[in-house]
Amino acid sequence: MMLGFDWFGAKTQVKILFGLDVDGSKASKFSFFSKKTKNGLSLISHKMNQKIDEYKVKYYHDKGLKTTNIMIKDLAEWIRLKEGGLTDSLNDSASSFPVPGTYTKLKHGKQHTSSTWHTNKGVTYRTYLDSSKTLGYNPTIDGFFNMPNDLPFKLFKIKYSDAYAENSGSELIDYYLGSWSWGSGVGGEKNLLNAFLKIENKTLNQLYKEDKNLLFANLILYRIKFFENLAKTKPKNKVFLNGWINETLNFYYGFQKYL
User: Fold this and answer.
1) Which of 15, 30, 36, 189 has CB 3.0 to 4.6 Å from 43, enough for a Cys bridge?
2) What is the per-residue pLDDT across 115-163, written as a single tens digit (0 to 9) for each?
3) Which of 194, 203, 196 is nearest to 218 (CA)?
4) What are phi and psi of 3, to 5 degrees?
5) Which tens digits make up the pLDDT trace of 44-81?
6) What is the pTM of this model?
């Protein structure tokens, strides 16, 4: 697997991010490196771990996730932590469908009056309305503002993770790819994943069986590069970049144990 890659055009470049002297034409021939181990990991997995550690420093990873030994519980906490509370940011595409009316709510610890509240705990107002029948709740404006803490994870699991499971062979990796759908839309997740798999010409399940640590680290780095390119091509999103990278690093460091 390799990440030296035009993320949007999916054109293989003659470049590897990890200092391995392998050009793009040999990108699928990493079995040699997977068989060489260091500290229980394949050599290339070890290289990727080092690269991810560099991002930890670069993006001031300070939003630590406290995990338990129950993956589902930790996933719910990861979503809660990464999504935060109410937002009315006009930089977010969800601002095109806000809650109707003007309301004064708490934002960053201060009372804030706005007519563009559109997302609470990662759930857009449109998704909140559209999901009410599936999850069996009455979609009111008050209900949106006072959303139960367990609703975001229920939405994530039922509408994204379970509905579009990628059958990687790993429940954890399927959940992680579900978070791509949550953040980039189902179509966006499919496009990103297809571009990722095109490099190797293998299924997720095959890659998981070959080297699960390598696949996990590669997906994490792939998502980081996607976020960096998104902020570069759409500068208004740069304000979200540090948060996006931190949530990705939280997933990597917090959930490795569940592989």
Assistant:
1) 36
2) 999 999 989 999 999 999 989 999 999 999 999 988 999 999 888 888 7
3) 196
4) -115, 0
5) 677 777 888 888 888 877 656 788 889 999 999 899 88
6) 0.77
